[in-house]
Amino acid sequence: MKMKLIRCQYPNNRYIGEFENWFDQMLSDVPRKSGLLDLFWDRPLERRIAVDLFDDEKNYYVKAELPGLEKKEVNVELENQVLTISAERLQKQGEKEQKISLSRSIDLPEDINVDKVKAAMDNGVLTISIPKTEAAKPKTITVN
Fold first, then answer.
1. Could you tell me the residue ranges of all domains in the chain?
2. Helix (H, G, I), strand (E, B) or coil at 92
């Protein structure tokens, strides 16, 4: 049986860069310490975790690329059919340190066995196995 791998396609970075430049120009005269705008400038940098999602007859799988992170820095939570992967690390640039938050939430189907979810991390790749319930597994029906 072949599995189909679907890689997440992010928007073209050129357009995001143009939007950020436009936004910076628009707010260039606004003081950085002005109440509501503090939410944007004082927050730690947030980034989305790249994930691959696929399944087979028995399980759904989530593979997340987390280079440079250790197991103890990664959190995996499953609540109300939502799988959340998160991590935080400090990035040094010269003498400055900046906290970087990484996270990704994935809505899961209802046909999962929550009690048997397993996560393993090897060389910066987190693999989460999410078993399907018996009702979700394909059944062969004999034609008479």
1. 12-43, 44-138
2. strand
Question: Which of 125-128's residues contact partners 24+ apart within 8 Å by CB, and which partners?
Answer: 125/63, 125/64, 125/65, 125/66, 126/62, 126/63, 126/64, 126/65, 126/66, 126/74, 126/76, 126/85, 127/61, 127/62, 127/63, 128/61, 128/62, 128/63, 128/64, 128/76, 128/83, 128/85
- As a CATH number, domain 44-138 is 2.60.40.790
Task: For 61-111, write each residue's pLDDT tens digit.
Answer: 999 988 888 888 899 999 988 999 999 887 777 888 888 788 888 988 888
pLDDT digits (tens, 9 = 90+) for 9-18: 555 555 555 6
Give me 98's structure tokens.
């900046």
Quote the tokens at residue 42: 């004082």
